[in-house]
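dumping this here so i dont lose it
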């Protein structure tokens, strides 16, 4: 099997929020200051231990996600960011992203993020419509988002993503398009647009929701790319749109299967052909974070068949699709010889298309992408 490039991606999980949103099934929840400090110290212990085994692999991208990483106070966060710099070797042009929610950012926090080299901020707006925000159980309003966005610009952030959600209860097609235009007009560098998925066990799963029908959701999604195109965004992945040269390198790394190391509660990793994740039990994590082998679970060494399938179904999430040549260079095998039948089927159905060296989903294929991807799991 081929080897990947030497660079590494880091993901840091910060599991704190002010309040859990009604659709959220992420590992997160409210916290006390003492709880945050205990967790950050545990995270620093994990970072110190794992960094020793990395043999100076340069870190190309970092993503600090959550929860809401902008919840912890400045001094707590400063310790974490200082540790990140002390323990890891960063490449010169590393992309370092932090997720933030409106209403939790302050000029002080933003200036500390900048001081420690965070150069991309992802703001979880979800909707510029206050009624929709309240219905989603978000704690902020649109005015607070605008204030946070402006604050981030003033702090020197020239790479900002805004998260938006569509097909939410009570939303009509026109409402979504209006939301999209409002946010695109603010000129962020990147927009992520996801449709609401009702996850089991969340408050939403227990309610009777007035959701848009399938045809409306189809149109909402289909027209997102065209509308954002008017504002200079191009779609580079199923749910992601960026201005030229502003794609999220960290996310592209996941889809291109770059090695990544997840640090913190419940974080997932893929390192040297092995996938594993950390425990999602907070007490266990706090107790054993300095001993990574004690907190890691679900270890799975990927077979060549696993890796080939991942190459296909993760790579096809990107609008540029997968390269036949890269597949052959990496696995020493011809893509057609492994996936000939699946490819033929989806070319015939009009779900996949081939141009020069690349195979990618058509617009029709993107809508049923999960079904197409499933076929590569031989």
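and the seq i came up w/
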């Amino acid at each position: 099997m081929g080897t990947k490039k030497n660079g590494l991606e880091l993901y840091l999980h910060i599991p704190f929020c002010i309040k859990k949103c009604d659709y959220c099934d992420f590992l997160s929840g409210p916290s006390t200051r003492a709880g945050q400090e205990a967790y950050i110290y545990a995270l620093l212990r994990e970072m110190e231990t794992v960094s020793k085994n990395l043999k100076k692999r340069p870190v190309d991208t970092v993503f600090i996600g959550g929860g809401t990483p902008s919840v912890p106070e400045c001094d707590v966060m400063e310790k974490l960011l200082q540790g990140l710099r002390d323990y890891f070797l960063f490449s010169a042009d590393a992309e370092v992203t932090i997720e933030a929610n409106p209403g939790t950012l302050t000029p002080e926090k933003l200036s500390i993020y900048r001081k420690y080299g965070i150069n991309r901020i992802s703001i979880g707006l979800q909707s510029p419509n206050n009624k929709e925000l309240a219905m989603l159980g978000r704690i902020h309003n649109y005015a607070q988002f605008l204030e946070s966005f402006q604050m981030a610009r003033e702090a020197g952030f020239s790479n900002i993503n805004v998260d938006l959600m569509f097909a939410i209860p009570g939303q009509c097609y026109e409402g979504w398009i209006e939301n999209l235009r409002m946010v695109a007009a603010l000129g962020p560098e990147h927009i992520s647009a996801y449709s609401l998925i009702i996850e089991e066990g969340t408050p939403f799963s227990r309610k009777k929701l007035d959701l848009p029908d399938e045809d409306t959701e189809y149109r909402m999604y289909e027209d997102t790319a065209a509308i954002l195109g008017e504002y200079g965004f191009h779609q580079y992945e199923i749910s992601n749109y960026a201005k030229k040269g502003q794609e999220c390198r960290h996310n592209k790394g996941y889809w291109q299967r770059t090695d990544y190391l997840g640090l913190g509660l419940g974080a997932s990793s893929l390192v040297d052909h092995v996938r594993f994740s950390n425990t999602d039990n907070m007490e266990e994590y706090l107790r054993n974070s300095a001993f990574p082998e004690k907190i890691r679970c679900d270890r799975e060494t990927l077979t060549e068949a696993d890796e080939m399938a991942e190459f296909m179904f993760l790579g096809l999430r990107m609008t540029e699709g997968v390269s036949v040549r890269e597949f052959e260079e990496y696995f020493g095998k011809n893509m057609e010889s492994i996936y000939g039948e699946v490819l033929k089927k989806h070319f015939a159905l009009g779900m996949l298309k081939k141009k020069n060296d690349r195979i990618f989903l058509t617009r029709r294929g993107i809508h049923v992408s999960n079904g197409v991807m499933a076929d590569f799991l031989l």
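The longest strand covers residues 90-100.
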